[in-house]
Amino acid sequence: MNSKLYPLQFNPILKERIWGGTKLKTVLNKPITSDITGESWELSTVEGDISVIANGYLSGKSLTEIINDFPNELLGTEVYSRFGKQFPLLFKFLDAREDLSIQVHPNDELAKKRHHSFGKTEMWYIMQADENSRIIVGFKEKSNADEYVKNLENKAVLSILNDVKVKAGDVFFLETGTVHAIGAGLVVAEIQQTSDITYRIYDFDRVDTQGNTRELHVDLALEAINYNTTETKKEYTTIENISNEIVNCNYFTTNFIPLNGVIPVNKNGKSFTVYMCVDGNFEIEANETSYHYKKGDTVLIPAAVNQFKLVGKGSVLEIYIS
């Protein structure tokens, strides 16, 4: 094991959004200073929003600097082989005081051609849900570009989209091309490819404090949308003290761990691992040191830190690339 590396926490990158609120502070203890904070970017190498280490002797260094210095040790041998020195995932917490815009993300091929970017496959873990909260995800029935555009022009696009009631613990996996929106009253943990490419297709005719509407990307979205029906909700087991698989795709694997006690963890050095604490508290014991985490914390375990223990009582998402 590379003794220079250890479990890394990062300063949250906080984003004001027209639909944001205050739950990132009241539910997740984030240091927000605005009543419309919608996102906390926990781990990012998106240009202009690169995470900075908050703990240990590497404090103050950026994630890209550490990857550059320790590519195999931090990313893992297989991740480095596949992605080079790019960090391939982006981790966020979101607070939707209002509905987000209805939007869609392009696939890798389209995103590369148009934006020199990854596409944006993502998943949502619902951490907190107000009564009667819902998401919008996919089409009710198979559609096509003509029907979609007609409904959009008539401001009736909601009539052809799925409206799904949600509760805490629900998980949704959104492949690229899936039309979607997080609904009001939800706090969500989001795991996605490293991409900030979003095509906004309907924004409920909202205006900001200056009376301006947000830009829409109707034409760009047409080629990106999957007009078929999709199954997005993921069922999963919740057996204590094991990694219960939720999502296993080309871009990431996510497990749910109901932690109650001690779990020894042995990794193979092929991928970094990220833990997001979605309830309770836990510790990581590594290198004869204890690192403490609470609900709303995210920690990056470098691939070279391949033997450690999870200790505590809480609910944890475990993410890596397989």
TrEMBL record:
Keyword tags: Isomerase, Metal-binding, Zinc
InterPro entries: Carb_Metab_Reg_Kinase/Isom (IPR051804), Man6P_isomerase_Firm_short (IPR014628), MPI_cupin_dom (IPR049071), PMI_typeI_cat (IPR046457), RmlC-like_jellyroll (IPR014710), RmlC_Cupin_sf (IPR011051)
Keyword hit for Isomerase: yes
UniProt cross-references to CDD domains, sorted A to Z: cupin_PMI_type_I_N_bac
UniProt KW Isomerase keyword: yes
Domain Mannose-6-phosphate isomerase cupin intervals: 246-320
Protein origin, superkingdom: Bacteria
Protein's UniProt name: Phosphohexomutase
Species whose genome carries this gene: Flavobacterium myungsuense
Taxonomic path: Bacteria, Pseudomonadati, Bacteroidota, Flavobacteriia, Flavobacteriales
